[in-house]
Amino acid sequence: MTAQFPVVRPRRLRRTPALRRLVAETHVHPSDLVLPLFVKEGIAEPQPIASMPGVMQHTRESLRKAAYEAAEAGVGGLILFGIPAVKDGRGSAADDPAGIVQKALRDLSGDLGDSIVITADLCLDEYTDHGHCGILTSSGEVDNDATLERYASIAVAQAAAGVDVVAPSGMMDGQVAAIRTALDEGGYGNVAIMAYAVKYASAFYGPFRDAAECAPQFGDRSAYQQDPPNAEEAIREVLLDLDEGADVVMVKPALTYLDVIRRVRDAVHVPVAAYQVSGEYSMVEAAAAQGWIDRDRAIMETLVSIRRAGADIILTYWATEVARSLRA
Ligand code: PBG
């Protein structure tokens, strides 16, 4: 008797690289990727970030080069973070037309034109001496509504400097509406908003806080960022931001919230972005440096998982490298 079992053999479609490529359900394209970049005021040379091997705090000049390389590799967008030389209680440098991010945005929009989408993170934590994402009350809490006025002013300053997209990341209630109104009244109706709609209070931002020099000087961000156990709340945040005028919604971090990315993807009809944050990057780099995992395969596996979960856009510190390898 000939063996009848098993007739159905999924392994047939896995046999060769060509077969696997033909049936692949998920793809990562350079144009889906957004590269986060840090620019620091008052440094003469780019500074390496110890907890993020391969990532730099840039000078204005080295930033231009990194941005150009990303555009040349076909990366879809950049997101800029600034580190001012002087910080204060209200984050004055954030909306100063002569502030570091505004200067850098002018450089980049002049250099790059429309070859890549120029986004700026819109928050106060890199600019405040206390490291929180907003203005504080006398008792040391983040004052939601007073902070909205600051965000509105930052949005207009970034728009005047040539940004295509602003990305509010502070998790204040009403931030998208406040920014949309300010942009429209300022004559910047074309500037889009990529809202960090779903941003969890995460341990995986640790290395970023070294990079952006923005660790809170007291307390943490749990009173404004989302609580990790909650996923229904994420949908509520997304719907609120869309009501307020968000054009793109983001989930952050990515890897520990793949289920949330999928829920958001299924709930709305706008582009969904996911931020593969600093800790996700550093975890892979650290394990690879020890020889414990295959770095390149691990990077692609994380990116594919984020796309498979439903993200259209991925913010990743590996954007340029991955874009190059996909084109090679
Ligand atoms: C706040 C902001 C943070 C990140 C992006 N925007 C830090 C925070 O909320 O503490 C984290 C990004 C990363 O970890 O890569 N401006």
Automatic annotation (TrEMBL):
Output the PROSITE patterns linked to this UniProt entry. Answer: D_ALA_DEHYDRATASE (PS00169)
Annotated metabolic or biological route of this protein? Porphyrin-containing compound metabolism; protoporphyrin-IX biosynthesis; coproporphyrinogen-III from 5-aminolevulinate: step 1/4
Q: Gene3D superfamilies recorded for this chain? A: Aldolase class I (3.20.20.70)
Write down the InterPro entries for this protein, in alphabetical order. Answer: ALAD, ALAD_AS, Aldolase_TIM
List the catalysed reactions. 2 5-aminolevulinate = porphobilinogen + 2 H2O + H(+)
EC number(s) reported in the record: 4.2.1.24
- Pfam families (alphabetical): ALAD
- What is this protein for, i.e. what is its function? Catalyzes an early step in the biosynthesis of tetrapyrroles. Binds two molecules of 5-aminolevulinate per subunit, each at a distinct site, and catalyzes their condensation to form porphobilinogen.
Q: Which PANTHER family match?
A: DELTA-AMINOLEVULINIC ACID DEHYDRATASE
Which NCBIfam families does UniProt cross-reference here? PRK09283.1
What name is this protein filed under?
A: Delta-aminolevulinic acid dehydratase
